[in-house]
Inverse folding.
């Protein structure tokens, strides 16, 4: 039975670890490259169209964006990694914020690691996977944009992801058709 979501709300954008919420609500983190579909995934899971802001411009999210779910847990939208057209200062700030949060926040229950099913994992993706394996091994890999591929391309790319990531723990997701939504919500509920 998947998690039922009621009254999702944007809480705040966090630019510093000192501004994290002070309560002990569990955090579920959404991590992936810029423009991989993090915001679209959050919106679909929450049955909202504009809860998490969707942008065609990579690198738009520059903070940890917290969303209150059911008044007792958070979804956290991380800034996308791997976008080259940001300053070194911003990249350094993001790195410190994201790494500090992922390494040290005790409220993180699980991470939704998001990759685009249409493209092989990049070096940045593989580095993020290695980081998660070490610091936050409780994660679910979600492959987005499934509706943009033919069934044979999907099957071929899914096999490629299973081999390159060395896992079968993958969920194929489409914001358009909602495929994979209940599997993701079921995984989140299993960790509460």
């Amino acid at each position: 039975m998947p998690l039922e979501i009621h009254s999702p709300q944007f809480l705040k954008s966090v630019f510093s670890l000192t501004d994290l919420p002070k309560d002990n609500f569990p955090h579920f983190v959404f991590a992936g490259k810029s423009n991989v579909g993090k915001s679209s995934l959050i919106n679909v899971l929450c049955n909202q169209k504009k809860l998490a802001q969707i942008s065609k411009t990579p690198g738009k999210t520059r903070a940890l964006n917290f969303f209150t779910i059911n008044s007792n847990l958070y979804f956290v939208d991380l800034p996308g990694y791997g976008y080259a057209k940001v300053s070194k200062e911003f990249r350094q700030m993001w790195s410190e914020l994201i790494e500090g949060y992922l390494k040290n926040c005790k409220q993180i229950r699980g991470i939704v690691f998001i990759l685009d099913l249409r493209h092989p994992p990049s070096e940045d993706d593989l580095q993020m996977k290695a980081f998660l394996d070490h610091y936050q091994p409780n994660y679910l890999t979600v492959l987005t944009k499934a509706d943009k591929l033919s069934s044979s391309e999907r099957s071929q790319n899914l096999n490629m992801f299973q081999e390159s990531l060395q896992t079968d723990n993958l969920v194929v997701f489409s914001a358009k058709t909602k495929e994979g939504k209940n599997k993701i919500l079921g995984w989140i509920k299993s960790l509460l």
The mean pLDDT is 89.
